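Long-time lurker. I teach an intro course on protein structure, and each term I like to show students one example going from raw sequence to a predicted 3D structure in token notation. This year I'd like something fresh instead of my usual example. Would anyone be willing to generate the tokens for the chain below so I can use it in lecture? Attribution to the forum is fine with me.
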Amino acid sequence: KAFVIEVVKAFNVSSDTGHIGAIQFSSDVHVITPMTDDKQTIERAIQTEVQLADLTATRRGLIAAEDMFKAKGRPNADAKVLILLTDGAADPPSPVPVANRLKSENVTVFGIGVGTGVDKYQLGSLVSQPVKDHFFYVTGWARLEPILIQLVNSAVCRCGSSPGRCWNRIPDAHRIPDAHRISDAHRISDARPPGC
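-- Reply from a regular --
Happy to contribute to a lecture. Here you go:
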């Protein structure tokens, strides 16, 4: 919960800049909050949510996100970003066709895998290209915080040339030790990705 709330806090959410929705999935799918520009409502909804614990119906979660973008998303949005946070391997049927459909609808898909139950290859197949900029992996929930800077910096690039329109605050710049690696080929950095 704390990480998701920090992600919400990092983005500038208002009627003019951006809306956020949240969905939780296990064997069931639960819309925590539909797309809204009310940051306090989003944070309260996430804080009071009870974590589901069962299967990993990633496909159903992605379909719910797709429906949310269609029903509540802003048609003139500069960017659409989906952050998929999971601690398991997706159960059948495959979520790949739904992820591909979202990406074809100009949704940038980020994936964060937590723990040893994650199928890294599978999650990597769901995210936008290049995978190294959109896929994050950590061994446990306590190791999520260093990802926040990279995630926000990567996501803000999808919001056009005016970063201030996307984020609420830039996390305090600090060098993250090399020990906090997302994968062998991808280190967390406090710098903006190229092209931003």
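Some talking points for your students: The chain is about 35% helix and 20% strand. The radius of gyration is 16 Å.
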